[in-house]
Amino acid sequence: MQLRQIPAHNAARLFGYRKLRRTNSDLTRRTLLIGSGVAGLAALAAAGFLGYAWRRLQRTAYNPDSAMPSSSPEIVALVGNMPYRRFGATGLKVSEVSFGAWAIGGKAYGAVDRRDVLRALARAEELGCNLVDTAMIYGDSELVLGEFLRGRRSRWIVASKYSYQPAGMVATLEQQLRRLGTDVIDFYQLHWPPPDHDVYEQLYRLKKAGKVRYVGMSVYSARDITQLIDHEMLDGVQLPFSLLDPDPFLLRAARLRRSGLAVLIRSSLKEGFLTGKFRRDATFPDPNDQRHGWSAAQIARTVDDVERLRFLEADAGSMVRAAVAYPLSFPEVSTVLLGTKTAAQADSNFGQIPGVRLSTASLRRIVAVQDELDAGGRRGLRALARKLLGRG
Fold first, then answer.
1. pTM here?
2. Domain CATH for 147
3. Does 327 lie in the same domain as 195?
């Protein structure tokens, strides 16, 4: 076999190419190894940071000093046995317990008897209640109120909400005015934070036009409250606050106090569970009951949490009185909304609850239980996400 001789210049090119390919291959491997190492270190650093953040979160305590009322609430009038408070800086005076009208629409807590609802509203008025809170999306609630308010409109502060209906704010408000049988809504709220700032401008224009007297927003988180306070033309805020849901109120109580906003509290009874009347095996078969979708585990867990607070019965006389007295202990609160469907409920809500106060010892023990239960969710995964996103 004859060996073929490769010319010197071709050989140089060939061996140079192989050398270059080996060099490039080595560089690629080194780059990949270095890149993998950097990515691995970054992942370890991120994991370490997350672990550190998580451990810090687990040590988060419910500080009794910041979780206690800063002072006693100011009572500006007494109508019968009903204490009245300032409604922010509006100049209005409001009953410290008010009529939550979601349930009377028939689409939240089961069917209602319209005649009994009208009796409940009349009984609430007799007992000194002067604010009712509703919304167009609460079934027939506004229509029932329109029937009730004929001839007695001046005795009530009417609060309703814009729930971002497709027709727009102006058209929706006009329809609500007709349903309520009035020419002005005293306190008109955005049902949740708006998607853009133009919504605020529409709200302010309606106030300037005299269609609504005062404006506000219903909120759900501490971040919502922070954003709302930045809008100086808003007059009030509505938010959840209960023995089992102390936040976002406690997280923003100091800012609310300085803001001078009217503060309306909803959900103080935790969908009725803080009345203490439900057992672990409770069910809600009515599809119109918002608790219908609760799982058995969620119901049982909530009942167990309520049982941890039974000690309050000795102080307040009943769980329902204690549950409402808790938010009423804070001077920032203007009024607590209680859902009411019947005359019997009105007797309890507006005749037996107003004026009840909890002792300092009970309030401190509440903070301890909230800490044990992590009632505000300050040590959970959602809290970690909020911290990392700067939304805590």
1. 0.83
2. 3.20.20.100
3. yes
